Amino acid sequence: xxxxxxxxxxxxxxxxxxxxxxxxxxxxxxxxxxxxxxxxxxxxxxxxxxxxxxxxxxxxxxxxxxxxxxxxxxxxxxxxxxxxxxxxxxxxxxxxxxxxxxxxxxxxxxxxxxxxxxxxxxxxxxxxxxxxxxxxxxxxxxxxxxxxxxxxxxxxxxxxxxxxxxxxxxxxxxxxxxxxxxxxxxxxxxxxxxxxxxxxxxxxxxxxxxxxxxxxxxxxxxxxxxxxxxxxxxxxxxxxxxxxxxxxxxxxxxxxxxxxxxxxxxxxxxxxxxxxxxxxxxxxxxxxxxxxxxxxxxxxxxxxxxxxxxxxxxxxxxxxxx
Length: 322
Prior knowledge:
The protein has helices at 13-17, 28-41, 57-63, 66-78, 94-113, 144-156, 172-178, 224-242, 268-285, 303-315, and strands at residues 7-10, 45-46, 82-83, 85-89, 119-122, 161-165, 184-191, 213-218, 247-251, 290-294. The protein is an alpha/beta fold.
């Protein structure tokens, strides 16, 4: 394989154990197929075996209401079927899986922060970008990417971090968890109007965070060309203004043209291009430090191909359209 030498995947076996009802879009096969592809392609996959557990309670409880965290724990222990809404089904493994996802993204962020020119891809579930301060929402329980950003500030002393969220759905949880602070830039490209109903261009942050939220709403049917313009005209300039010390990516693949939960027209080549753009920005602005974490993407048969296209682009490998 050609491309970056410092490229690594991260996961946790707890993530795949989280079960969901029949027909539910966010299910274990998403992660299973992704990891099978990673193994087949020879990617280095760190599953945390033998590592010391990352301390993520502090960043989790800095961003989420501790009472919510305890309510989540008790709901799983009681055997409740859902948390807060039917969008968030529970199984006996959900509590551990949510912590496993958060710890994995933090572990990936640690690895990237401790070197230069590193790209980590965190293959995790449940996803995180819809999780609010005190509410589970949209398949998400903990704000994985926001927690990793908080960890980089808290433990690595970073003064500026950026999050780019290209999931087809707006990352309302990430925005709301961080919108009052100026040290973490949040940029979201998303279908508009659409679930969850947040992400208008006028939402730019609050107080000290004014201007550190950059929403790029796009109409249904937007494809590769429209996204390319948005990256060039809005995403990259926002990153250049912020000059982050690391770029984190909420990597959702539901803008794919055939995704059952999206309404966009992005091709596999589009995701490859996004990888090239974000890696180039990381190389120019923050010594190549790039952390990507799985969010959405519900075409079970193609998710692995789309993720591979993105990481190939980020690594500088040639696109391989399936």
